[in-house]
Give the backbone structure.
Amino acid sequence: MESIPQLRKVWDDIGMNGTVSLRMGERGRLVIPRELRTHHRWVPGTPIVAIDSEVGVTLVEQSALRKIVAAQLSGRDLVQELIAERKEDARIESGL
């Protein structure tokens, strides 16, 4: 995630309503409060993904990850970006 404003837009797009403080236990475990689990219908075994970024860690249900990626890639032409990147790398390597 590139910036806080973009992260906020993604949160709005997926219906982010607020934040909850968690405390890590001695063994590195996090307990997700009941209210949050109930709100998201998370039950034991629900796949949760931790997204590590320069601003911290975001926990999301695995199924919500598609929405986040789609929102971040919306309107982008990844093939053209890759071609442009490769051309720039080749230009730099050739010394031009």
